[in-house]
Write a structure and sequence with these properties.
The protein is an alpha+beta fold and 479 residues long. It folds into four domains: 47 residues, no CATH class; 229 residues, Beta Barrel (Thrombin, subunit H); 87 residues, PDZ domain (Pdz3 Domain, Roll); 97 residues, Pdz3 Domain, CATH 2.30.42.10. The strands form four sheets. Strands 19, 20, 21, 22, 23, 24 and 25 form a seven-stranded antiparallel β-sheet that branches. The chain has a six-stranded antiparallel β-barrel with strand order 1-2-3-6-5-4. A hairpin with a 2-residue loop joins strand 24 and strand 25. The longest helix has 23 residues. It is globular, with a radius of gyration of 28 Å. It starts with a helix and ends with a strand.
Length: 479
């Protein structure tokens, strides 16, 4: 790099007297510049390249091939809308077929630990996963962790010598808008590909499906198959896991998103230590600041997370949070909305203390918040339901803070469906994990005790009120 700088300085010094000569002769500077265009005088002048970085990181980026055996149902009436409406996709004779998909992954530990996206490996049916390294070696892999809310999954290579190439983590908080980055993955299944770009934005929260998702935005080309691949900085270290694109055509349009490495590293280290990653429990309800809230609270910007409700016994109340407070920074980092707040607290880690900067009645206030895990459910908080009713086969729970975080639902009244027994009546009727039962036979359901009592009476028709994805609906089921 020192030699190149010297060459460039020498070239500028040589051009200076020539430009002065043209000026004395009355020739416009633009013509003087055109007259001095020439082929680069040395190979070093044209050898600026990302090759050393790509060469360092590429061996640790793998192609992930997923094969699933799924049950398909064939019928001569399969394309008839009438039969599909009344009998669904499972009408006809069962047969097995194989679905294939592909994505990318990053080896982050020499023992063969791979990080990828949950959506790359998740699907119905028995799953087989095969990974191919850049050196053409292939191995089977198994799933050791998958988290739907963050879209982070961890695989482990089966076999090998335990000395796989790795990419080291970088602190994603050191990134700035405009930094150069490379994306490495397997787009469209064509094989390992490297693309370059810059960091376009940080802490994007508006495009995620879950309240646990915060993204780095980049214009490095990301296409289908890149999911789970590496986003690296100019030192060849991992700053993100490529996850999704914004596109109207299905191809890259210069808007791609990656999960920050700090969140990925938290999952990898917690998994290695045998711990579960939990989002800290605040005991408060946070809402994004909109224009109306900003005007009502006389804020000078539409940004931050407003505390709308505080639980008396929660960590937030103990730290001094009050309804109406607007959180603006966590540990010195600006937060645009509740998702950004929870991201900062999650990566800070349970058991640690976070510094919270907020506005209270227009005045800045700083508090210290001890990060605590959510309370665990008691023996009376969870039930497996069985009997002559539409919820037969459902495992339900009172809505406690930890469960609300895990299922991505709000705390409050009702009973949440945690899981469904395969083939059970509740599953066949269309109930889903995360559904919140709010009423039964027009009677309000505050908790499991209410629900169990209401289920004891036989009905000719059941009316089950549920809340799904924030929307209320009534399911009518024959008794």
């Amino acid at each position: 790099m020192r030699n190149r700088a010297a060459v460039m300085t020498l070239g500028f010094a040589t051009l200076l007297p020539l430009a002065a000569l043209f000026l004395i002769a009355g020739v416009p500077p633009t013509l003087a510049q055109k007259a001095e265009k020439q082929v680069p005088p040395s190979r070093e002048m044209v050898q600026y390249s990302f090759a050393p970085i790509a060469r360092k990181a590429s061996p640790a980026v793998v192609n992930v091939y997923v094969r699933r055996r799924v049950q398909a149902f064939s019928s001569p009436f399969a394309n008839d809308p009438f039969f599909r409406q009344f009998f669904g996709e499972r009408f006809g004779r069962p047969s097995e077929r194989v679905q294939s998909s592909l994505g990318s992954g990053v080896i982050v530990s020499a023992d063969g630990t791979i990080v990828t996206n949950t959506h790359v490996i998740k699907g119905r049916g028995e799953t087989e996963i095969r990974v191919a390294l850049a050196d053409k070696r292939e191995f089977d892999a198994r799933v050791v962790l998958q988290d739907d809310r963050t879209d982070i999954a961890i695989l482990k290579i089966e076999g090998g010598d335990g000395r796989f190439p790795v990419i080291e983590f970088e602190d994603s908080d050191t990134l700035e808008v405009g930094d150069l980055v490379l994306a490495i993955g397997n787009p469209f299944g064509v094989g390992q590909t490297v693309t370059s770009g810059i960091v376009s934005a940080l802490a994007r929260t508006e495009i995620g499906k879950s309240d646990s998702q915060v993204f780095i935005q980049t214009d490095a080309a990301i296409n289908p198959g890149n999911s789970g691949g590496a986003l690296i900085d100019m030192s060849g270290r991992l700053v993100g896991i490529n996850t999704m694109i914004f596109s109207q055509t299905g191809g890259s349009q210069g808007i791609g998103f990656a999960i920050p490495s700090n969140l990925v590293r938290l999952y990898v280290e917690s998994n290695a230590a045998g711990r579960k990653v939990e989002r800290p429990w605040l005991g408060v309800l946070l809402e994004p600041v909109n224009r109306n809230i900003a005007e009502a609270l006389q804020l000078d910007r539409i940004s931050g997370a407003v505390v709308s409700r505080v639980s008396n016994r929660g960590p937030g109340a103990m730290a001094g949070l009050q309804a109406g407070d607007v959180i603006t920074r966590v540990d010195g980092f600006e937060v645009a909305d509740p998702r950004a707040v929870y991201y900062r607290l999650t990566t800070r880690g349970i058991g640690n203390t976070a510094r919270i900067d907020l506005l209270r009645n227009g005045r800045p206030v700083t508090i210290e918040l001890r990060l605590a895990p959510p309370p665990q459910p008691g023996k009376d908080d969870v039930r497996n339901l069985a009997g002559p009713h539409p919820l037969d086969g459902a495992r339900v729970s009172n809505i406690l803070p930890g469960l609300a975080d895990e299922l991505g639902i709000e705390e409050g009244d009702g009973v949440a469906i945690v899981s469904l027994r395969a083939g059970s009546l509740a599953q066949r009727l269309g109930f889903q994990p995360g559904d919140v039962i709010t009423q039964l036979q027009n009677q309000k359901v505050d908790g499991i005790a209410d629900l169990e009592q209401l289920l004891t009476t036989r009905q000719s028709t059941w009316f089950v009120g549920i809340r799904r994805d924030g929307k209320a609906m009534i399911m009518q089921v024959p008794g």
